[in-house]
């Protein structure tokens, strides 16, 4: 092939190259680094004008036209990446900012493959594309993640992510302040183990039902602190249901420590239901407990006994020594009851000096034994009042509930037993006569 034939073919190749490169979203180029460190561009496609705002011919004649517009903060890193690629003949990939002639900063991604030439130069064949929009989105996402991470890391509430199996996949650093654990101690752990055994099944059921419905669940739960005690958390649980398969995959829980508020609420409840002098339930609270106990006994056919008792000649004590002395006697009676009764026995004050017990699961005979033990203790107690020792006795009436007996009927029979104890001389235990 002679020179006259080769020139037209080269021109035709370049024209076809230009037409092809015009369809690309970036710029095709060749870049050469000479042994003395001089950078040149033997070939640049027409996309240079659109992308960089500089004519391709100008760049091939004067490479400084393009290099001078690389962002000042990025130029050193760009040169280092070029020299690394040249030294190792490794594929060159780099992102940098470019100051466009028409104003504004563009982000550019370059990719090129190097080869060593006979004179020691390195020639790259590469492609550059404008990634400004992608980079802005990426930076915006990074900034958004940075803001959200800042919020999560500094919020005082506890933030937890759990999978569908209840395994903790993320917990905010505030867990150390709220529960005393380091975040890594709880990650990959089943959080249900932190709930009281009696509460765990109920909480799991509520979470499962809410997740199946895709509803937010708000509840108050007790959770074990790292020190072993339990605290109260007010929790909002939001399930994530996949739009693809409609299956529950994640649960986001945001919790706040409400232990102090809960204690105040319980104290207020205690004040509203408890007699402060004796520690017994007040009449309304006691009657509510009796009604609930009777309903429970109906379902389980369990035995239940009621004991009514009052202090003998209490009015005479008040008349002789004053109400302050009477209050001391009442307080002493309450102390004896609290230290003698079982945890499940229910103790109430239903009148001035009148008291009652609900003994769930206790027969008449068992109630008689307990009442006699209380009577004996009361008889032995001495109350010191201004250098004087006061004593008192108590009379008891007992009735075991009959099948389907109403609350009023049961109380009436126990009251008749108390009346009989009074009539027979006081300081005695008397069961209902009918």
TrEMBL record:
Domain PAC: 92-143, 217-270
Its EC number(s): 2.7.7.65
One Pfam family recorded for the sequence: PAS_3
GO molecular function: diguanylate cyclase activity
Domain PAS, first and last residues per copy: 144-214
PROSITE patterns noted in UniProt: GGDEF (PS50887), PAC (PS50113), PAS (PS50112)
InterPro entries linked to this entry: Biofilm_reg_signaling, GGDEF_dom, Nucleotide_cyclase, PAC, PAS, PAS-assoc_C, PAS-like_dom_sf, PAS_fold_3
Keywords: Nucleotidyltransferase, Transferase
Domain GGDEF: start-end pairs: 302-434
Cited SUPFAM superfamilies: Nucleotide cyclase (SSF55073), PYP-like sensor domain (PAS domain) (SSF55785)
UniProt protein name: Diguanylate cyclase
Top-level taxonomic group: Bacteria
């Amino acid at each position: 092939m002679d020179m006259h034939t080769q020139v037209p073919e080269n021109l035709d190749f370049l024209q076809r190259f230009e037409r092809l490169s015009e369809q690309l979203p970036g710029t095709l180029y060749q870049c050469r680094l000479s042994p003395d460190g001089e950078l040149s561009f033997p070939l640049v496609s027409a996309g240079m004008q659109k992308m960089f705002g500089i004519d391709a011919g100008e760049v091939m004649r004067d490479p400084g036209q393009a290099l001078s517009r690389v962002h000042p903060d990025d130029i050193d890193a760009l040169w280092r990446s070029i020299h690394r690629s040249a030294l190792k003949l490794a594929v060159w990939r780099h992102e940098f900012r470019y100051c466009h002639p028409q104003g504004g900063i563009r982000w550019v991604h370059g990719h090129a493959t190097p080869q060593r030439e006979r004179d020691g130069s390195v020639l790259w064949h590469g492609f550059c594309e404008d990634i400004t929009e992608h980079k802005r989105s990426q930076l915006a996402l990074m900034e958004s993640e940075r803001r959200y991470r800042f919020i999560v890391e500094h919020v005082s509430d506890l933030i937890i992510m759990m999978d569908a199996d209840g395994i903790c996949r993320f917990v905010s650093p505030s867990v150390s302040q709220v529960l005393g654990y380091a975040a890594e101690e709880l990650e990959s752990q089943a959080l249900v183990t932190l709930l009281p055994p009696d509460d765990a099944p109920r909480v799991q059921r509520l979470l499962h039902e809410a997740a199946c419905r895709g509803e937010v669940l708000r509840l108050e739960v007790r959770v074990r602190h790292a020190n072993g005690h339990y605290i109260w958390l007010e929790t909002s649980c939001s399930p994530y249901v996949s739009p693809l398969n409609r299956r529950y995959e994640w649960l986001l829980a945001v919790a706040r420590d409400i232990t102090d508020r809960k204690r105040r609420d319980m104290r207020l409840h205690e004040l509203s239901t408890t007699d402060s002098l004796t520690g017994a339930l007040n009449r309304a609270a006691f009657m509510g407990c009796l009604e609930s106990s009777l309903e429970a006994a109906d379902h389980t056919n369990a035995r239940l006994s009621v004991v009514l008792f009052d202090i003998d000649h209490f009015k005479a004590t008040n008349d002789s020594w004053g109400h302050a002395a009477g209050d001391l006697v009442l307080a002493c009676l309450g102390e004896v009851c609290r230290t003698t009764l079982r945890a499940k026995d229910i103790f109430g004050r239903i009148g001035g000096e009148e008291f009652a017990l609900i003994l769930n699961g206790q027969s008449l005979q068992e109630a008689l034994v307990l009442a006699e033990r209380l009577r004996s203790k009361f008889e032995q107690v001495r109350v010191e009042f201004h250098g004087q020792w006061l004593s008192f006795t108590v009379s008891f009436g007992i009735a075991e509930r009959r099948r389907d007996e109403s609350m009023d009927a049961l109380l009436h029979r126990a009251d008749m037993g108390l009346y009989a104890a009074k009539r027979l001389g006081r300081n005695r235990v008397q069961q209902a006569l009918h």
